[in-house]
Amino acid sequence: MQDKPASKAPAKRAPAKSARRRSREAALQGLYQWLLTGEDIGAIDAHMREQDGFDKLDRAHYDALLHGCVIEAADLDSVLAAHVDRKTTELSPIEHGVLMIGAYELKHCIDVPYKVAINEAVELAKSFGGTDGHKYVNGVLDRAAEDLRPLEVKAARKGKS
Which secondary structure element, helix H or strand E, spans residue 25, and what is its range? Predict the structure, then answer.
């Protein structure tokens, strides 16, 4: 009797990216360019809108993140300054942009649970940042969440104990 070759299990596909995840990625790319060049955000935004796949993202969330982070850059940096170990201008532009997006979502996107906002920022840092940048992002945003969403954080931590 001849042995049958072992059948290979089908390769697992990564889950499809949500429209919100795509909007965060596009906003990060725009913020990165802005942080590096200081170019007009309108020009950066126009360039981002021409990219393949732009139609698959949550445009309202993208607009809020990109423009909101630029408009509130100084305020977001002051929130982050209390939790970073150096000036925000000394952070890598990717980590800086990720932290700005995370802080913006914690501050303004109350429909996004704080743990989700932090996790999404960590995933951005894993995808685009340095080797251990996601750990730094996680720690900074976890502490910033205590300032920006104290009741939600307290309730979540109380529920754990």
Answer: helix 19-37
Calpha distance 152→130 (Å, rounded): 30
Structure tokens belonging to residue 23: 């909007």
Q: Cα separation of 111 and 102, whole Å?
A: 14
- The DSSP 8-state label assigned to residue 38 in this structure reads -
- 25 contacts: CB under 8 Å, gap ≥ 6: 17, 57, 124, 127, 128
pLDDT digits (tens, 9 = 90+) for 108-151: 999 999 999 999 999 999 999 988 999 999 999 999 999 999 99
- Residue 19 burial by CB count (10 A; 0-12/13-18/19+): exposed, middle or buried? middle
- Buried b vs exposed e over 38-71: b needs ≥16 C-beta within 10 Å? eeebeebbeebeeeeeeeebbeebbebbbebbbe
- Token duo for residue 42: 């309108």
Cβ pair 85, 143 in contact under 8 A: no
Using one digit for the tens of pLDDT, what is the confidence trace for 11-55? 666 667 899 999 999 999 999 999 999 999 999 999 999 999 999
Predicted TM-score of the model (pTM): 0.89
Q: Cα–Cα distance between 49 and 149 in angstroms, integer?
A: 32
